[in-house]
Design brief:
By secondary structure, the protein is of the alpha/beta class. The protein contains 10 helices and 15 strands. The chain folds into 2 domains: 180 residues, 2-Layer Sandwich (VC0802-like); 162 residues, 3-Layer(aba) Sandwich (Rossmann fold), CATH 3.40.50.150. Strand 10, helix 8 and strand 11 form a beta-alpha-beta unit. Helix 2 crosses helix 7, helix 3 packs across helix 4 and helix 5 packs across helix 6.
């Protein structure tokens, strides 16, 4: 079987970063092939830890991404198992160009028949920065033209563009004169787990929900409660983590590397079978509740889609009437921010949450996320940890509260 050139002994250096200012990536043939895994801002260290658990080496957190080295098995596992990954990118060619002619020529000199056939489809995305290239869409168009022109001249036929499900999705990163080409091995973004069938207003991104849980250090080793569950993303991700269910277990669309010329079906089946074999029942209860019937119903539908309706208990209970189901445990909540979900008196609402936690949830650990910095001032509890995350376009604080009997509260540990 023809091996994909990116799995040869040599892997090319890449200058990759959303701001494209990272120069730490150097070629080291002895440590495996270079991978770039994209994530959300604030989850880089969590993703790096996940990768190291899978066996990745030379992990380096970047901005909204992590670089690492590994073999084809690691790439397959990263796509299937990682909870905080958005895309797994594989660098395969680098060069320098200072104008569109030199760029077009360099792309056209690549033997694209090693990656796709004339009957296949492609999509190109580009990010540019610097003085030589100013327009990302033009860089993507130039890349596409160079590829299809090569096929047309050689064979009289050319691949078509398919932005939804291409045979090959190419990412272009240009910083100054440095041009890097990467293959997208994921296809659809990895936050699309496949279990979401219904939503309410302002649903939480699945990768963000999983990242929040991992940031708390919870591993299914205590009772878990989400008292404002919305469409159920947090408790579903918690159940998947507690049961060691792979993140893409319910995915319906094909992963991108399924369409590659060097797709190793046997290796993929081995990777999937090994991961699926680790699934086990949860050790502690997981509870989802919300005051809104619509939210409870959406959560129930999504739990059924995920096959977790018998694992997570979903109830319609307002937080002020919810009692702790155990003496200790962890509570994670995504309360309304007063952005898309309007609240009549947001300061009073947040104060009531803090009061309820203080009065009824002693012995528990509570984590809440919100972008409403003014409302946080009314919360009435001092966090022991504060982490900056981004939910959509909103800068948020994800804060930890140790709930003691009485008034013993820790000092802030900022991040």
């Amino acid at each position: 079987m023809h091996l994909h050139p990116l799995w040869s002994k040599k892997s090319l250096p890449v200058n990759y970063n959303d701001e494209m200012t990272n120069d730490k990536m150097t070629n080291d043939e002895s440590s495996g092939n270079l991978l770039i895994i994209k994530t959300l801002q604030g989850l880089e260290t969590v993703l790096a830890a996940e990768l190291e658990t899978l066996g990745a080496t030379d992990t380096q957190p970047l901005k909204r991404a992590v670089s690492c080295r590994g073999d084809r098995r690691l790439m397959y596992r990263a796509n299937y198992e990682l909870r905080t990954a958005l895309r797994v990118l594989v660098p395969f060619h680098s060069f320098r160009a200072t104008n569109e002619k030199s760029y077009y020529r360099a792309v056209r000199e690549i033997d694209w028949s090693r990656y796709l056939d004339a009957k296949d489809t492609l999509a190109v995305e580009a990010t540019v920065s610097g003085d030589y290239f100013r327009h990302s869409q033009y860089a993507a168009l130039l890349t596409k033209d160079a590829i299809v022109d090569q096929f047309r001249d050689r064979l009289g036929r050319r691949p078509d563009v398919n932005l939804e499900t291409p045979t090959l999705r190419i990412h272009v990163r240009i910083f100054g004169s440095q041009c890097d080409l990467l293959l997208d091995s994921s296809g659809d973004s990895l936050h699309k787990r496949g279990y979401r069938r219904d939503t309410v207003e302002a649903p939480l991104n699945e990768v963000l929900a999983a990242g929040m849980i991992l940031l708390t250090g919870w591993k299914g080793d205590s009772t878990f409660v989400d008292p404002m569950c919305g469409s159920g993303t947090i408790p579903i991700e918690a159940a998947m983590l507690a049961m060691d269910i792979p993140a893409q277990y319910k995915r319906e669309s094909m992963l991108g590397f399924f369409r590659w010329k060097d797709f190793d079906k046997k290796l993929w089946q081995d990777v999937k079978s090994a991961a699926d074999a680790r699934i086990h029942p949860p050790a502690f209860p997981i509870l989802a509740s919300d005051m809104d019937s619509r939210a409870r119903n959406a959560t129930t539908i999504n739990l059924m889609s995920a096959g977790l309706e018998h694992v997570v208990q979903a109830e319609k209970i307002p937080f002020e009437k919810l009692m702790p189901p155990a003496e200790t445990g962890i509570l994670i909540a995504n309360p309304p921010y007063d952005e898309r979900l309007q609240i009549e008196d947001v300061a009073d609402f947040y104060k009531s949450i803090g009061d309820r936690l203080k009065q009824n949830w002693a012995g528990w650990q509570a984590w809440l996320i919100s972008s409403n910095m003014e409302a946080w001032k009314s919360f009435g509890l001092r966090p022991s940890r504060k982490i900056t995350l981004v939910n959509g376009s909103l800068d948020c604080y994800f804060q930890k509260f140790e709930l003691y009997a009485g008034k013993k509260y820790a000092q802030v540990e900022g991040e």
